[in-house]
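Hello,

Our lab assistant flagged a job as stuck in the queue for most of the afternoon. It eventually completed. Since we weren't sure the result was trustworthy after the delay, we are filing this so someone can double-check. Below is the sequence as submitted and the structure that was eventually returned. Let us know if re-running is recommended.
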Amino acid sequence: YHDRSKYSVVDSFFLIGGIFFLGASFSLLITLRNISLEIIIYLFLITIMTDTYAYLVGRLIGTKKLLESLSPKKTLEGMAGGTIAGMLVGTVFYHTVINPELPIYIVLFMTLFLSILGQLGDLFFSAIKRYYGKKDFSNIMPGHGGVLDRLDSIIFVILGFTFFITII
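-- returned structure --
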């Protein structure tokens, strides 16, 4: 309690803020699921395709580091490849399954926005880990960074989608 090197007021605010942030995000996930399973599939398609293709493109042709201090293996080429793949797959799914009436340029812009936002979410959680000097959030899934590392992108995508649908 009295040793600030172990626990401080800043740590308590991070904890409280994290609980509310994660709670609100996953509450929105449940709410969106109750509205439409197709929307949940759309959001997960964006994040999975973006993450997968960012990794593949980055490994194949990535040379320029994105933010080496936060995530040393991420590259600009990987980010671009992931964004394009997530945008294409997500847009096709949304336009064919969810709402073919919505103009394609709106769907493209929304999906581009969500793909980039998902990658920023990944970097945001990487920054938290670097701040605390941790490689992974937990050891439940060795080599994968923990459960939160699997869901860091979708958290930001859910929040971004909720924001975006209030506009359109």
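-- support follow-up --
The delay was a queue issue, not a problem with the job. The result is valid. The chain has a mean pLDDT of 84. Helices lie at 9-35, 37-61, 76-98, 104-131, 147-167.
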